[in-house]
User: What shape does this take?
Amino acid sequence: MSFLDRIIESNQARFDAFLPLRVERWQVGWIHRDIVPIVIDSSPRFADDPDAIWFCAAPDDSRGRTEAVAAAVAGLTRRGLVMPQGEKLGVAVRLGTAPLFELDRGAARRFGVRTYAVHVNGYVRRNGKLFVWLRRPAQGGVARGGHWANMVDHVVPAGHSLEDVLVRRGAEQAGLPQELAAEGQAAGAISCVRECSDGLAPNTAFVFDLEVDPSFEPIPADGQMHHFALWPVDELRGLVSETRYIEPNSALVIIDFLVRHGMIAPSEPDYLELVYRLRSGLRPRFGWKVLSHLESPRIRAKSSVSSRSYMLKKK
Assistant: This one.
């Protein structure tokens, strides 16, 4: 597997299996056709046609849409298709604008809404060499199935800024003092869209680079059992390109880190293609676009390296 293969693997989706979810002129998500009847039956505020699902009934405002979505999430939960997490995401036209509605994070993939996350590359320089901190659940942990991830990573909840997440989750997940977390350098954003067993996962990761002192050791303060390890960048190359023991979004963030720090050289095969794909992600046929009123279809009224070394690496 090459770096480009890993990027392509994280951008696979059969968009024909989904219907766009739209609010007025805006497309904000994708719902699998198999669960469309459950969503439609959950609330009179939804309507569908052959091309999309719409919010159609009053009150057609953020509160009304949030209530309609909550009713659909409840229906999916009763059928064992969603596991609510109690954390709300703001679904908006773009990050930083007023949310069109709020949605439980556990249902984000079922509704195919774009999530935004903060990922922190915590790195160290020792004797002229570069090392990167990664974390994974300790023995017996179940999150991500034990996959390695960036030192800090978390979605941006409703009502929070990127800086809020950087500081708060930095403290909780890695024990970063506020003043240290605030030194994180914005290093761009990475997009991907992949189909999962529970829906569609469009994601944008906002990347921060944070150089820490060699004496610093991350310690979780949120009660979660995590194991941290300091990886030489040469071993990171193998972790990303030769195994699947790393969380998919973190894998893309690390590829980007390796590119920006010269560890993936322009002379390597597919260099320009992988740099482009890190930013562009997968472009669905329908696109993520604003629809004019003339384009909006008429809505029907609602009828009713070795595997062992990667897994066991010590500090």
